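Dear Dr. H.,

I hope your travels went smoothly. While you were away I took the liberty of generating a structure for the chain from your last submission, since the lab meeting agenda had it listed for discussion. I wanted you to have the full record in hand beforehand rather than looking at slides cold. The sequence, exactly as received, is reproduced here:
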Amino acid sequence: MDWIFDNFNILAIVGIALASWLKARSDAKAAEREARRASEEMGQPAEDVFGPGEPWNEPQQWEMPPAPPPLVVKPRTPPPIPAVAQEAELKRQMQLQERLRELRESKAVTSGGAAATRTRAATQQTGYTSVAVPVGLRSVVRNRSDIRRAVILREVLGPPLGLR
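The corresponding predicted structure, in token form, is as follows:
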């Protein structure tokens, strides 16, 4: 009930809009009835959409077939590949396969495989780098990650939302 009194101006606007819509609708129906009466008084039937000089043709009756014609579905087969192109394609694939084998061998020799990579990663020192503190506001605004960090810190460390 308080909501109605608090938002009375909104309800009044909605009521006025609804009333004007209903009035426009009733006016349109009244104008349609008046046009129908006027056409009946002039001797024309109400549903006559043709003028006095236009010919009236009866609609033609078309016979519908009992069922649609059956669909003819032909199986799709890919076009045949010429023997010359097939030989060239096989030769190209063999060259690619040989090149891939060579790359895998060279990678195993140079990197030592997955075990060597794990060993290298374990032996590397993982030290933290110091983060440079920005000097001015201009340098903070240029960096998107610093802006995000500042917004999050403000939300976390600032006053609660209920006390703002």
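Two observations you may find useful: DSSP finds six helices and no strands in the chain. The CA atoms of residues 16 and 43 lie 41 Å apart.

With kind regards,
E. W.
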